[in-house]
Amino acid sequence: MMNREEIINVYNSGPDDVVELVQSLFVIIEKQAAIIEQQAARITELEARVTSLENQLKQNSRNSSKPPSSDGYKRPAPKSLRTPGANKSGGQVGHPGSTLRMTQTPDHVIVHPLTVCTCGCSLIDSPILRTEKRQVIDLPPFRTEVTSIRSK
What pLDDT, in 10s, does the model give residues 78-131? Predict the structure, then answer.
């Protein structure tokens, strides 16, 4: 870039030097305009490519012909077709609840005596203030039954 003194020196040297300077500046401007046009075309091309690649990333098995196995771990959240009702989920107000009651005659009783507190103190000589009771109900073991069929 020329400073003020250099421009004044060109002006004082005569009209031919001024014309030559202006013409050289026009050549530079034309080159820059051509570069700008090339860059604008390249930018348009790259924006189209970015849009295409973003659209590819948005595709999954629901909105394209891709198989579900190509979704990987980024599967879309399932969308329920059920319309939400007026009631909240769970037991409704006024509905009589029912629960599985504890049996008075369990098949097995296991006692877990507490001998040490969580702080590390011994509980052997301490009086029992309360007990907790839970029951676990298991299904009987599965037994296979084999039937032999014969014809005479």
Answer: 788 888 888 888 888 888 888 888 999 999 999 888 888 888 888 888 888 888
Classify residue 108 as left (phi > 0), alpha (psi -120 to 50) or beta.
Answer: beta
Dihedral angle at the C-alpha atoms of 19, 23, 25, 29, nearest 10 degrees?
150
Nearest to 114 by CA among 96, 126, 98: 126
Q: Give the confidence band of 62 by pLDDT, cuts at 50, 70, 90.
A: confident
How far is 135 from 103, CA to CA, in rounded Å? Answer: 8
Helix 4-13 with 15-58: angle, nearest 10 deg: 140
Q: How far apart are CA 71 and CA 60, in angstroms?
A: 6
